[in-house]
């Protein structure tokens, strides 16, 4: 978990926090937890999510266990810059769905003194680095990698395995389309799919 004592002792200056991992690992839950604590501290908070993510709600960030927080859906990363004036903390969910401009946007916000908290998948369903997340990991001051539990063997899972036949990079879905797998179970599934 992120140590908020660091924030208390930080000089007035911004930074980037990245929460990453596979699907069903608690990324959004951790993002909501941090944002709520910032609100309790009477900080001005604004939360953004990609407009395409309407799985649970059009205007809320919602975790798999149905915790939610009001958010602003945006078309592109540049919209975040335009809509984040007069705030202390910016939260961004499902960051992997944003364009690569998100990295520059987050750095501009942090350079202007804001705390920026970003949550997103670090790998796509093929096990490849996903969207702007790798570059955000490189420029962030704080990184938290969270894990799901493998549905096959119970180990820590870091892969989001797609169980449907779609091959598009972005396919929104839940347990009906994705399952969290550990490295070994994911590799077993890749080998099995190559044979079929």
Which keywords apply here?
alpha/beta, Rossmann fold, two-stranded antiparallel ribbon, single chain, 12 strands, 29% helix, 196 residues
CATH overall fold name: Rossmann fold
Number of helices: 6
What is the rounded distance between the termini? 41 Å
The poorly predicted ranges are none
CATH superfamily: P-loop containing nucleotide triphosphate hydrolases
Assess the beta-strand content as a share of residues. 25-35%
Classified by CATH, the class is Alpha Beta
Q: Any overview of this molecule?
A:
- The protein has a 6-stranded parallel beta sheet with strand order 5-2-6-7-1-8, sandwiched between helices. A two-stranded antiparallel sheet has the order 3-4.
- Strand 6, helix 4 (101-111) and strand 7 form a beta-alpha-beta unit.
- The chain has a single domain (5-147), classed as P-loop containing nucleotide triphosphate hydrolases (Rossmann fold, 3-Layer(aba) Sandwich), CATH 3.40.50.300.
- The mean pLDDT is 87.
- It has 196 residues and is α/β, with parallel strands linked by helices.
- The longest helix has 14 residues, at 27-40.
- Helix 3 (77-83) runs parallel beside helix 4 (101-111) and helix 4 (101-111) runs parallel beside helix 5.
- The chain contains 6 helices and 12 strands.
- The chain has helices at residues 5-9, 27-40, 77-83, 101-111, 133-139, 183-195, and strands spanning 15-21, 45-50, 60-62, 68-70, 72-74, 89-92, 115-121, 142-146, 148-149, 156-157, 159-162, 178-181.
- The chain is elongated.
